[in-house]
Amino acid sequence: MSTDTTALATPTEPTNGRRAEPPVNVYVRIRPFIGDEITRGENQQMLCIRDEKRIAVKLYPTATNNIRPAQTSYNEYEVTRIFDHNCTQQELFEQILEQSTDEIFTGSNWLLCTLGLTNSGKTHTMFGTPKDPGLIPQCLQRIFLHIGYNIDTKVLYKPDGLENLVQTNMNNLQDEINYRKYIFKDDKDDYRRTRLQSIVQDQPSVLDDHSVEDEHYSIWISFFELYNESVFDLLIKPSAMKKRKPLRLMQNNESTVIKDLVQIPVFDLKEAEDTIRFGYANRATSKTDLNEASSRSHAVLCITLINIDEFEEEPTMSHMYICDLAGNEPSTGTGKQLAETCNINTSLMTFKDCIRVLNENQTAKKQMLLPYRNSVLTSIFRPFFIGRGRTIICCNVNPCATFISQTNDLLKFSALAQKTIIVPVEPAQKKVVLESKIKGPKRLGQGVRGPTIGKKKNHQTVDSEDVEEETAVAVDASGAPVDPNSIHYWKYCTRKALELLQKQASNRRLFFIERHEERTQTVQYVLHQRDQMEQLFNEKQSLNQNIESLSKAHTSEHEHLKQAKENYAELEKKFNELFKKYANANRDNDTLRSRLKNVQQKFDSLNTEYNTTIEQNRQYEQNQFNDKTNYTEEINRLTRDYEQEKHEKAHKDKTIEQLNGKLLSEKNQNEKFLQEVTQLRHDLKSIHSKYDTLQVELLQLRETKNNEPVLVAPPPSISAPPPILATRTLRSKRSAHEEETQDNKKSKLGTPDRPAGNSGLVHKPSTRRVLSKPNTEEERKPTPPIVKDVAKTKSSVSILKKRPLAPSNSADSPMMTPKLTTPATASPIIDLRPPSVVATSIQSTMSPKPTAIQRIQSFFRHTPPSASNRIINHLKTNSAGIACAPSSPTTASPIAILQKSSLAMRKQTPKRRYKLRSRVNSNQ
Ligand SMILES: Nc1ncnc2c1ncn2[C@@H]1O[C@H](COP(=O)(O)OP(=O)(O)OP(=O)(O)O)[C@@H](O)[C@H]1O
Question: Which residues are noted in the entry as ATP-binding (predicted)?
Fold first, then answer.
């Protein structure tokens, strides 16, 4: 580690004949309470401002001090100036930086840095806000106000480190052109982006011509930060992808050069502010426990001023370093934040150490080495520790009671720094690297300097050698060498001429200085005038606008008036018309009034009627209501009755359904009976037809035989069936068919005394009963009178008719003929003949012919067995006897006899036969 020694001096004891240097300017600014600090109880009046230079800190008893609990102790410190929380940014600038800003125009360098705890208002003091700009914006404003129109638009020189200047040419400004393009790339104004480029391109000859006709200034800005002991250029935007590349530091004898640091020329205040805004955005800040946007690095803004004066052989360069130091903070946090805090604290500590060493060397007459190399910050600011510039320290104080201990330390350091005087070490000659010969106006002379605006040039004096020579030569009263041909005389003349010229130059310089001051005042006046002009221009514009709008309003008013007049004329016309109409209307009105009166009367009468009607209606409605109530009751009653009837009806319906069921079943039964009857009738018809056939056969047989009577004819009183039988033989098929059809009709339609389908059922049993066997013995006697009686009745016909039917066994079929009962076992046959005759006839008729029953059975052989059996049974049980001829029961003798007798009695006609037949059928 290498250190520097500095010359020690006190303000009162100038060394080596130099003027006394002032001590370091230390200012204290106490910020107001912010946020919820007051509610947190931070305002405990820990700081007490005694006057504008002295401040006292109230101390608490701690382990390290001897303060007793009951005792109130104050530490008092003195600084250059104290600003309380009411101090404005502008006030602060005027007090601490305005003069310094002016002095950079005299060639002096300045360093302004802020010290303080984190969250104490350092950044706020430096940068401020757009509405309340801090020290940096105000400083730039002051500089550009001073420069006015004397900005070097040719960019003749560029800075090379702290000490050196380089003449510009077309090649060495490319970086600056690019940086300007890059920094102002978001700027809408293309002029600013390409300004430097156009200077280089459009005025190449000017760049080679470094002559000036007046005093010109150029402002160069560089902005960098010291983060974790590395230097980063803030005018290069950090890439999201790439890691920022730290800049290298190069040390020369007196200063530290930051290699490749971007320095760009700015031509006006706006450009300077935008450049700083661009760099500020790239600064490392983050949220800490104490500050939402805490600075994690020391940000250093370097404003370089290059002054080119036509009377100066070399341009001068001065710097204003404004440094926003990161805040001292307790070493809390972890990882990256802890590393940041340690680096910040280390560099601040080194800075304070340098000041302390300086102070100690000064007070204790020591020559201790400055530890400036312990941090990058102090390395860069080394020129200021060796007196190459003036230093201002602004200590920002956080008034919170929580940090009173740190505040006390800071104020202690402030008081120490305030007493420290940095004596400048003899400056080395500024090197101006001239790449081309300066073609400016020839300097009139050197060594004679009038009052300058702070130009720190070494005054050149007459060589001592010359003085020595001068003393050896004889001179006259005016001091001129006597010998005009001697070299001394010429030297003397030359010196006098030079002096004269220097005097003239001095006068001229004075004149120009005055002119410069005048011009500065004029510039200020012009600027002021320009502001006023601008203001007036704005006012004029607004007035013009007002006039324009007023004239527009006037024109429109005029048009409105014209329109209104036209409207008025029209309205007048309309009014006249309306007046006429009004008169007419008035007349109409009278008429209408009288009409209205009538109408009113009518209305009154109607109203009365209406009221009456209303009353009637009301009455009617009342009646209606009563009726409605009655009706409702009646309806309810009827509804109840209806329900009851409905119930009964349902009950009856049920009953009817049941009866219907019964009726249906009876109907079914009836149908069955009818079917049976129909079947029986059908059977009977077939029997009839067969019987007729038999009768025909019998008649044929009888005709073929010799008409011998076989049976004794019954007494004449007996109506014999033979005629009936005979008549049957005569029936034509047609009559039989008609009969059958009629029977069917009768059975279907029925007769008044016999319903259809039931005729047989109703009357047959009675017939059967009539024809049935006599129940008593008497009745069973086969007496002729009984036959006679029977023959007399209608039923006798049926008896006769049935006589040919022989009784048969049940379930007999025609095939069962051999089993048939003999005539002896058959129904009793009435034989009216004498026994001898009968026997003979029987003998003659019985053999070889079949019996009557057999014949009948054979006759019924084609009929269904059930029907034939029923008939045969019927005949067996009900027939009283069969009249048979002597030969056979099938002979026609008895029948013929009967026929004859019957024919004798009554002639048979087809109609009669039919009726007879009908009667027989009806009896069946
Ligand atoms: N004079 C003031 N008036 C009003 N508010 C202030 C003043 N000084 C500081 N503040 C406010 O205090 C807060 C902290 O200020 P600032 O960030 O400048 O502190 P800092 O010392 O720079 O902190 P760090 O060292 O952490 O960067 C900010 O919100 C700022 O607006």
Answer: 116-123
